[in-house]
Amino acid sequence: MIVVDLVIEKKHNKEIFNIRKIFIKQTKNLISDLKPLNIASLIVAFTLIIPIFNFLIEGIDSILGGNFSLGISGRKEILGTLKLLLLTSFLGGGLGTLNGWLLSNCEFRLRKTLRIFQLIPLATPAYLLTAVLQDLGSILGYQISGFWWGVLILSITTYPYVFLLANESFNKFGVNQINASRGLGVGPWGSFFKIALPMAFPALITGISLMCMEVMNDLGTVELLNIPSISKGITENWIIEGNPKSAIGLSLVALIIVFTLILFEKFSRRKTKRWSENPASLSSLGFKLKGNSSYIAYLFTSLPPLFAIGIPFSWFLLNIDQLKKGFTTELISLTLRTISLGIIAALVALIFSLILTLSNRQNKNLLMRLITFPAGIGYAIPGTVLAISLISISNSKFYFIAIFLLIWGYVVRFLTISKGSLDSGFERISPTLDEAAKGLGSNWFGVIKKIHIPLLKGPIFVGSLLVFVDTIKELPITFILRPFDFDTLSVRIYQYAGDERMAEALLPAFFITVLGLIASSTLIPSLEKKN
Asked: Which of 4, 362, 406, 436 lies at a 20 to 30 A Cα distance from 32?
């Protein structure tokens, strides 16, 4: 028995020694192979990790101190979140994939117009749509509440995440193969399931993951519809009940769920890499839909945007006589302030994403990947908890420090969106292109400039757009971190809705929708290009 224990201990010590040896080797390789891009990547990673690390320290401290708790309704809220994620993934993911295919590889009237309409739900805040639905329901004598309403509203307001990436993938890659299948007599749906869907799978996984993260961090919809969820539990425990221990416990569970989503996304995309050396040509034609097929296409592509914009517009017409209450000179400054924050956050997130993604592409060091990986999981932390974490880092009340913290929170929160879009774009760029360029004498900067950036124009535009729209809609981070008397459109909507002044909240919400549509329309030319 003693001999067996000694053998086991010896084997255990050998494993520890091997792990230590690998870690030392990777560290030496990282230091010896440091380039300007790698150094910049490490700086960006640590900048983004600090708030997350601060949150984890508080969580670990509560666990070690025996203070870990999920609260009275914690289990019910976790189960409600998982059910919400599962059902919105099926409904929203299926809707985004189907519309992406119809509007990129099928020909029918008003296709280009309907493509623009798919971006409307992205610019419509889910909590506002819920509040308007409930107000209209009360007028008609019908109560809007419950789990299935939440699934419907969150699916419609988040499916554009999947649509944008699916449409961009369907529109550019695999068309040569689809044209070949048409010559063999394969119809549109056969081509979709056998060719287009497998090739677009990496982009679809990224879109669904982003959609799930947005659903997890939703607060207004689940509160208005009285749906048990983790985000609602965090807010109630931290702010209403004054129980930060349970809020931290639920936040840790949220982190585990999103961390699992990210791992699943990366694992799925790694197992389904499909590069296209011959992107679609300008001569590629889509499937022409006629008769009942075209009517079904109209139905699926028009109902979601009409639901997202038609309901608020109908409510707007009913309350048009109260419109003057919301139109003030202050609204102009609020709009300009919101646009500025959105542009700054989108640019910083894009630069940081490029640095991290390009560095990981150039450097295969395991330690480097372990350091930079946590920088892309800021979406895991609810906006309220992230804001409180940033406040604990800096208690300064200076105006410029508060603005810095606000931008910092946006970038940490939405970097996953920009980086996810770039990662899915890189999945379609074969490593042989990098190796060929290096074999011809090009350095790493030349490869990035002449190969990567030109091929990533689509994902860059998509990622920047999503960050911009999400920033102008963001509420918890903005509401907590904004300087004194520094409101934005989303904060003003929240304040009006809380005071039951919905008529005054409609005009700022309309501005947010218009801003989102203007930004989204810039994607149409790039999505129409076949090269």
From this structure: 436
Tokens of 39: 């150094």
Q: How many Cβ atoms are within 10 Å of 89's Cβ, its own excluded? A: 19
- Whose tokens are 């372990």? That residue is 370
Closest CA to 231 of 243, 247, 242: 247
CA 214/CA 237 separation, integer angstroms: 21
Angle between helices 36-64 and 399-426 (to 10 degrees): 110
Integer Rg of the chain from CA: 24
The DSSP bridge partners found for residue 107 are 288
The residues near 504 (Cβ < 8 Å, ≥ 6 apart) are 322, 325, 326, 496
Of the CA atoms within 13 Å of residue 277, those in its CB half-sphere come to 4
Q: Which segments in the chain show pLDDT lower than 70?
A: 1-35, 66, 172-196, 239-242, 268-286, 323-326, 361-369, 380, 395-400, 430-432, 434-435, 437-449, 497-500, 503, 519-531
The two structure tokens encoding residue 115? 């493509």
What's the confidence (pLDDT) of residue 282? 44
* Residue in 181, 236, 171 with CA at minimum distance from that of residue 428: 171
The pLDDT, as a whole number, for residue 6 is 47
Instruction: Give the pTM.
Output: 0.75
The torsion of the CA quartet 339, 344, 345, 348, rounded to 10 degrees, works out to 160
pLDDT recorded at residue 152:
94
Tokens of 217: 């961090």
Contact 49, 415 (CB under 8 A): no
- Answer yes or no: are the C-beta atoms of 421 and 203 closer than 8 Å: no
> Is-contact 198 97, C-beta < 8 A?
no
Residue 288, H or E segment: strand 287-288
- What does the block give as tokens for 206? 């990224």
Please give the Cα distance from 356 to 16 (Å, whole number): 30
What is the CB-side half-sphere exposure of residue 71 using CA atoms within 13 A? 30
Q: Which two tokens stand for residue 529?
A: 């290009």
| Residue 454 exposure: Cα atoms within 13 Å on the Cβ side | 7
DSSP 375: G
The span from the CA of 345 to the CA of 450, in Å, is 26
Cα–Cα distances in angstroms (integers) from residue 107 to residues 175, 191, 248, 298, in the given order:
14, 15, 51, 11
Please report the pLDDT score of residue 149 as a whole number. Answer: 93
Q: Which residue has the tokens 């994403």?
A: 353
Kindly report, residue by residue over 447-485, the tens digit of the pLDDT: 666 777 777 777 888 788 888 888 888 877 887 788 877
**For residue 287, what are the β-bridge partners?**
106
For residues 92 and 210, the answer to whether their CB atoms sit within 8 Å is no
Q: Nearest 5 degrees, angle CA 72-CA 75-CA 81?
A: 125
Closest among 386, 74, 85, 90 to 228, alpha carbons compared? 74
pLDDT for res 285: 52
Which pLDDT does position 20 carry in this prediction? 54
Helices 502-521 and 126-140 sit at what angle, rounded to 10 degrees? 140
Name the helix (H) or strand (E) containing 14. helix 2-32
What is the pLDDT at residue 153? 94
Secondary-structure breakdown of the chain: helix, strand, coil percentages, each rounded to the nearest 5: 80, 0, 20
